[in-house]
């Protein structure tokens, strides 16, 4: 008998305010046509003044609990992937615990920037397999609008705010790749690439939250190569390949990266969940948002084989193979 971390529920929340590309034309030397053609982004949701990452995360968590038919008492652990917490501490995860009125279990944040959800999912899987927790809520939640330099056209048009949540539950499996649940994970990072994507502020440097800085075209090159590689490694660990995949659910940073990765994996775009046009890059929130929207659209169905893959600041990147 093998223990598997199986998806029991999924949900998401997007802030009400939608900003179309054309809105940037008033303040920046940019155009809807440039943003669409270079990134695939058409619009993004931005948090209202005073709306925080934990508030988005709590709403996504409530949606996932409703989808799973569970209550907060049923959850043993909350892991939040985020790089834009409400406060330096406490963690967003403990704020979610409080927001849900959860009195049990434990909660903590994982910070791996855009790869944060993949890293959080791998952590949750490890905790379930080791018997530390039976049901884990894994959330990706971000308010990247708070770290944008709104005068930098190379970054501020690309990002958005939002949150997505997944509930994983320990279930018995057979050990074969026909089992539902997480089948393989692959995590990587390389700190030598810090300068390609970072925030120019922090607690122990200048005491400020800072702004996101990115050498977009350099990150692009790493992304195309490393995402296909990590997805391939994760699949290979359990004897699977691109041909077995029903859905790639990629980090939603750029449509050109998404399609180049799919091509390298020999998976047609009809089998890729794409939400980047409506959400922009929501960092750690993008994969759980895409999982939730993909389910709502009727794309992702029970039994489907999924690969999620993401890369972000660090650089940090990774992939998770799971059967829905
Ligand atoms: O989620 C974390 C990981 N992040 C990513 O995966 C992002 C990866 N990078 C990208 O998505 C792309 O590199 C971008 C969308 C950021 C940029 O696309 P690109 O094809 O790599 O363009 P580029 O950076 O090479 O810039 C091309 C030109 C430049 O002008 P010059 O130097 O050729 O005259 C930029 O100044 O486009 C210019 N540019 C813009 N023009 C209009 C940059 N931003 C804009 C803009 N509007 N918003």
So, CATH architecture of the largest domain? Answer: 3-Layer(aba) Sandwich
Task: Name the CATH homologous superfamily of the largest domain.
Answer: Thiolase/Chalcone synthase
Instruction: Indicate the mean pLDDT.
Output: 98
Structural class, please? alpha/beta
Give me the strand/helix succession.
Answer: EEHEHEHEHEEEEEHEHHHEE
Highest CATH level, the class of the largest domain: Alpha Beta
Approximately how much helix is present in the residues?
25-40%
The ligands found in this model are: oxa(dethia)-CoA
* Largest sheet: number of strands, sense, barrel closure: 5 strands, mixed
What's the alpha carbon Rg, rounded to whole Å? 18 Å
Report the end-to-end length measured between terminal Cα atoms: 19 Å
SS field, number of helical segments: 8
Beta-strand content: 25-35%
Q: Got a strand count? A: 13
- The CATH topology of the largest domain: Peroxisomal Thiolase, Chain A, domain 1
Q: Outline the low-pLDDT stretches.
A: none
Q: What is the molecular shape?
A: globular
Count of structural domains? 2
Summed up, what is this model?
The protein is of the alpha/beta class and 324 residues long. It is 29% helix and 27% strand. The strands form four sheets. It has a five-stranded mixed beta sheet with strand order 1-7-6-4-5, sandwiched between helices.
Commentary on this structure:
It is a single chain. The strands form four sheets. This protein has a five-stranded mixed β-sheet with strand order 1-7-6-4-5, sandwiched between helices. It is 29% helix and 27% strand. α2 crosses α3 and α5 packs parallel to α6 (255-264). With 324 residues, it is of the alpha/beta class. The radius of gyration is 18 Å and the shape is globular. The structure holds oxa(dethia)-CoA. Oxa(dethia)-CoA binds at residues 30, 34-35, 38-39, 114, 153-154, 157, 216-217, 219-220, 223, 253-254, 257, 281, 311-312.
